[in-house]
Write a structure and sequence with these properties.
With about 100 residues, the chain is α/β, with parallel strands linked by helices. The chain contains 4 helices and 3 strands. A 3-stranded parallel beta sheet has the order 2-1-3. The longest helix is centred in the N-terminal third of the chain and has 20 residues. It is globular. The N terminus is likely disordered.
Length: about 100
């Protein structure tokens, strides 16, 4: 009987938590940080993909070029961003591995 009550309490807690955090995504513009200057291949590809993402998701996609320090500046900026799915970062094998 004790296990059954514990199971129901756990189910109630999980259900209430999921309803609190359930939100429509995306509800604001999405930012893609590119660690290279405008005109780079990754920048060009991101700008080609952004209109389709905007169409599909219903939110603007903002391309934010942050070149410098071999991509480490932009990766640090992305690492300090809130972990809410609204900040994405591009990169190459070299700067992502470092």
């Amino acid at each position: 009987m004790h296990r059954l009550i514990s199971f129901f309490m756990l189910a109630i807690v999980l259900t209430s938590v999921s309803t609190v955090y359930a939100q429509a995504y995306p509800s604001k513009p999405i930012r893609i940080i590119i660690p290279f200057p405008p005109g780079d291949t990754l920048d060009t590809m991101s700008r080609l993909i952004a209109p389709k993402l905007t169409e599909r998701l219903g939110q603007n996609i903002v391309i934010d070029n942050r070149p410098g320090a071999a991509g480490q500046l932009s990766l640090e900026l992305a690492a300090r961003a809130r972990a809410d799915g609204y900040t994405l970062v591009g990169g190459s094998g070299g700067n992502l591995v470092v």
